[in-house]
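Batch job 17 of 40 flagged for manual review because the log was empty.
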Amino acid sequence: MEYAAVGLALLGLAVGTLYRLSTLIPIVIALFLLSIGFAIVEHLGLFSAVIVIMGAQTILQGSYFLGLLARAFIIDRWPPLSGEAPATERNRTFRSAPTLRPGGGLRG
């Protein structure tokens, strides 16, 4: 069980660091089905099965979030290798969306 938890944590960290949310969703669904299968094979009761499913999902999604934080830290700290501008400078070149002025009308 401990090896499975460490494996889930490493999987979540890798997915959070390298991929976006669209990759996480199929992994979460597969993990849910595998957790149900594990609970059936091990003849777990309803409460134990729910704890297994919630524990596995918590480990995976928590480490995914840590991977997102690591990705944000890496992107923020080191410039890209391709020679393009860092993310903070790229974001400044986009024109902001129009906003409402206090007196009425649009500013943009």
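Reviewer: the log was empty due to a logging misconfiguration, but the result itself is present. DSSP finds four helices and two strands in the chain. Unflagging and moving on to job 18.
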